[in-house]
Amino acid sequence: MLKPSEGSGAAGSPQEMPEHVRITDNDHRPLGEFRTRYPASAWAQIVIELMVLLVYLSASIYGVGFILWDIEHAPTTPLEVRLSATAPWSGMFFAGIAGGTLFALKYLYHVVAKAEWNRDRVLWRFIAPINCGVLATGSGFGIASGIIPFIDESSFQNIYVALFYGFFIGHFSDNVLAALQRLALEWFGTVDATTKSRDDIR
């Protein structure tokens, strides 16, 4: 039976195998063992997760391509005018989704191969790419405002800088959130610290 959480190993790991078969590859299985470790019902969900992520990736690539095409050609429809007016932010959003989706796809095939996949991660896989797009755009707002001095605030006038920034932030969103959390702690402190200070005053 698979472990309930990804990243925590799986039944049939090298530590649980007899000594004479404890020769494994990087997928936590004996060399030469090729049979799947998942039942058909699990594979059905894995394929659904894969298809949803591929839809995210396709839609984000289409969005980036449409914005680039719109910049090179004079906008004619109301939608094209709006996208042209919101670039680089709309492009940054789509690029952030692409980066986050690529990370989710890479993570999906790793956990499936290592028998660390579980059903409960489905929400993470469906929500994370959108979060990455929002995070990339929101942090871009912080840079453009001058609050976050990561790069020059005028750099986003070049659409390709904005697209790379969105993709980079989306792909490494976990690191970005950790950095923003450290920044928030430095600026505002913690809830526990605030509670203690109020108790001391009383």
From TrEMBL:
Residues 1-23 are annotated as: Disordered. Keywords: Membrane, Transmembrane, Transmembrane helix. The chain crosses the membrane at residues 46-69, 89-109, 130-151, 157-180. It comes from the Bacteria. This is Uncharacterized protein.
